[in-house]
């Protein structure tokens, strides 16, 4: 007698028993099969050493850094890349799983306002010091290249930092402000700590600007008052509505100095800049109460608090009424950090998406063998490359400015490019993150893959450190303040680079588009003139996007022209037999290989890959609505459907993107 799972075979019932037995065995098999499926559902997408895998970054460094600097930097970045994958990335996930906890009262009813952060978060602070993530820029070991080197480390760190990039941005900004003030004696200790490599000494800083009545409109929204004390210090009274990294050691903040009658000057002329310690040596808050922690969509690893300043002791560090000018140095730095974060999150999402394409099978073949999927990734890749090159350009210029090596033109260009890059890459990163999420299908939406965390954290990049509109207006301000000089420098820089690229055949279409875009821009500016403030204001966003697209387009052309970018592994046109001897420009066989290679990061032939993608985009019909005016017209009667009254001349209305590659 055979006994299977309680079933007995009895003589005479053999047929029936054997059927039952078969069913049971099938059940078993199904069960096993299910278990197998559960265990081997899908290989996880991964990234390796982000420095070694980033061909564009490596070729950029190779082309630009002096050999001695490159040698040292390369060694350090390779080591850092390994540390990120093996040690820092797991901490980052721990920070996400253990967000800060706020305890207002202790068990006995005493107000304690304790913001408890996890061990991994505190470890991030130590690592930041050990790696010199702030120090590098201020030690200037590599002269003008130190800032770029620091930015590269921050770029690699950003998407593994568990949100710690935010306090680092403000810390860098605070160090910059103190340095620009000549490091006064009273701030020497703070400066040394902000730029220290010693984890025991290292401080982070907050930047407390936003109040209830205004984050953008700080000039009118700041209510905080400062009262002078007999010892020359001040006491601050007010309410700070958004204070990120509220566990920081110090902060820079704005307040209005009250006179003997308690009156303050309103507007930006009434604002002064103050330095304060958040806690004293015993860890007691500096007459500050934490109202609550913000319940945020993303950046949950980091404590963002609402704070009451109830006589917080502070030191005036700007001239009275010059607070906005003094803090602008901080904003320039935090905005550059914002660009770093944007590029880093795009790079991380695309790297993971690329790896997934090599592992996931759909319709009987890997995703990487589906041309349309590869085209989607390639388009994202082009976005991140443009953004990366723009970032490198900015930190290169900043490095020159900080070592007194920048020409007047370079300083003007830097002034213009910071807001342009911040506003453009913030938007780009959100679009790329959403697109990349889709490239994982349903898995992209699953919380425990970590992908939604990247998306959520990316979405804030267009809001903090100045929204898109506010930065667009800042771009206009830079034009007005320099009496058009920034624009003249911008145009002459782009024109010069275009001349260099125009000799390369693959780039001729892109160069032509850039020329047309510049022409549109010049036509627009001539039509508007400096008088029509409203027109300029309404066009500010489109105008700034145009500048960003033109500049990144020209950066990409330059990178391809000089072969920085590792655009490798493309087909030679003569290999395409069906098209041989005819016009090959839209041949799908020719385009498929370079586009795939671009998407997978395996391209070998300078220029061809991006040019191919551009050709492909050009071949597509223009989508309806692409040429319609992007500006809303509140003054127009609704439903007229006409833009004849549009204050923006038509020259600007069609997107003057030179890059052809802006489908997002
Ligand atoms: C997660 C997070 C952390 C933050 N951390 C900090 C921090 O540490 N320190 C700090 O100081 N702040 C911080 N902020 C605040 C942030 O900087 C502000 O929210 C931001 O500057 C916008 O200000 P607001 O919220 O007052 O919006 P508003 O200024 O009210 O803007 C609302 C909308 O109106 C638009 N708008 C406003 N004025 C104009 C105009 N003149 N023309 C056209 N459009 C306009 C804006 O673009 C925006 O879309 C943080 C915000 C977030 C989300």
TrEMBL record:
GO molecular function: acyl-CoA dehydrogenase activity
Keywords linked to the UniProt accession: FAD, Flavoprotein, Oxidoreductase
InterPro entries: ACDH-11_C, Acyl-CoA_dehydrogenase-like, Acyl-CoA_Oxase/DH_mid-dom, AcylCo_DH-like_C, AcylCo_DH/oxidase_C, AcylCoA_DH/oxidase_NM_dom_sf, AidB_N
Domain Acyl-CoA dehydrogenase 11-like C-terminal intervals: 485-553
Domain (Acyl-CoA dehydrogenase/oxidase C-terminal) ranges: 321-479
Cofactor(s) required for function per UniProt: FAD
UniProt keyword Flavoprotein, yes or no: yes
Domain Adaptive response protein AidB N-terminal: 46-180
Pfam families: ACDH-11_C, Acyl-CoA_dh_1, Acyl-CoA_dh_M, AidB_N
Protein's UniProt name: Acyl-CoA dehydrogenase/oxidase C-terminal domain-containing protein
Upper taxonomic lineage: Eukaryota, Metazoa, Chordata, Craniata, Vertebrata
């Amino acid at each position: 007698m055979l006994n299977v799972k309680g079933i007995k075979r009895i003589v005479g019932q053999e047929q029936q028993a054997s059927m039952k037995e078969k069913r049971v065995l099938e059940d078993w098999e199904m069960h096993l099969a299910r278990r197998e499926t559960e265990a081997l559902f899908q290989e996880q997408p991964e990234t390796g050493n982000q420095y070694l895998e980033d061909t564009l970054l490596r070729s950029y460094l190779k082309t630009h850094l002096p050999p001695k600097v490159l040698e040292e930097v390369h060694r350090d970045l390779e080591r850092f890349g390994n540390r990120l994958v093996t040690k820092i990335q797991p901490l980052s996930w721990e920070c996400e799983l253990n967000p800060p906890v706020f305890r207002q009262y202790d068990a006995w009813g005493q107000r304690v306002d304790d913001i408890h952060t996890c061990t991994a978060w505190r470890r991030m602070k130590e690592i930041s010091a050990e790696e010199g993530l702030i120090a590098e820029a201020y030690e200037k070991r590599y002269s003008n290249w130190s800032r770029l080197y620091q930015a590269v480390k921050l770029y690699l760190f950003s998407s593994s930092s568990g949100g710690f990039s935010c306090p680092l941005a403000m810390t860098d900004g605070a160090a910059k402000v103190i340095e620009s003030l000549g490091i006064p004696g009273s701030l020497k200790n703070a400066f040394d700590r902000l730029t220290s490599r010693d984890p025991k000494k290292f401080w982070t800083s907050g930047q407390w600007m936003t109040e209830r009545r205004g984050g953008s409109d700080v000039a009118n929204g700041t209510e905080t008052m400062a009262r002078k004390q007999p010892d020359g210090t001040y006491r601050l009274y007010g309410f700070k509505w958004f204070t990120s990294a509220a566990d920081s050691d110090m902060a820079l903040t704005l307040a209005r100095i009250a006179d003997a009658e308690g009156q303050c000057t309103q507007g930006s002329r009434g604002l002064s800049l103050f330095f304060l310690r958040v806690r004293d040596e015993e860890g007691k808050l500096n007459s500050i109460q934490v109202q609550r922690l913000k319940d945020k969509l993303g950046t949950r690893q980091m404590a963002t608090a609402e704070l009451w300043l109830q006589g917080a002791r502070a030191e005036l560090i700007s001239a009275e009424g010059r607070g906005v000018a003094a803090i602008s140095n901080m904003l320039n730095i935090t905005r550059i950090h914002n660009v770093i974060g944007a590029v880093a999150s795009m790079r991380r999402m695309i790297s993971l998406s690329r790896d997934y394409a090599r592992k996931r099978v759909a319709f009987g073949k890997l995703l990487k063998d589906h041309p349309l999927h590869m085209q989607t990734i390639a388009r994202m890749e082009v976005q991140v490359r443009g953004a990366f090159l723009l970032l490198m350009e900015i930190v290169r210029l900043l490095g020159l400015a900080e070592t007194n090596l920048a020409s007047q033109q370079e300083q003007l260009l830097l002034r213009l490019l910071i807001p342009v890059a911040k506003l453009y890459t913030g938007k780009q990163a959100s679009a790329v993150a959403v697109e990349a999420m889709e490239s994982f299908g349903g898995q992209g939406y699953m919380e425990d893959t970590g992908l939604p965390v990247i998306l959520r954290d990316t979405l804030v990049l267009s809001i903090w450190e100045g929204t898109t509109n506010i930065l667009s207006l800042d771009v206009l301000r830079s034009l007005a303040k320099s009496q058009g000089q920034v624009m003249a420098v911008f145009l002459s820089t782009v024109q010069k680079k275009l001349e260099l690229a125009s000799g390369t055949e693959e780039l001729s279409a892109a160069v032509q588009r850039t020329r047309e875009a510049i022409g549109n821009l010049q036509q627009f500016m001539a039509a508007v003139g400096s008088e029509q403030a409203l027109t300029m204001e309404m066009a500010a966003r489109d105008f700034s996007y145009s500048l960003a697209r033109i500049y990144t387009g020209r950066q990409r052309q330059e990178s391809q022209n000089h072969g920085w970018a590792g655009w490798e592994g493309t087909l030679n046109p003569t290999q395409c037999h069906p098209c041989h001897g005819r016009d090959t420009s839209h041949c799908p066989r020719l385009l498929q290989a370079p586009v795939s290679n671009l998407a997978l990061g395996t391209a070998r032939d300078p220029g061809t890959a991006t040019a191919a993608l551009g050709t492909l985009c050009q071949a597509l019909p223009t989508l309806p609505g692409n040429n319609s005016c992007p500006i809303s017209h509140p003054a127009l009667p609704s439903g007229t459907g006409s833009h004849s009254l549009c204050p923006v001349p038509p020259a600007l209305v069609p997107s003057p993107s030179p890059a052809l590659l802006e489908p997002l």
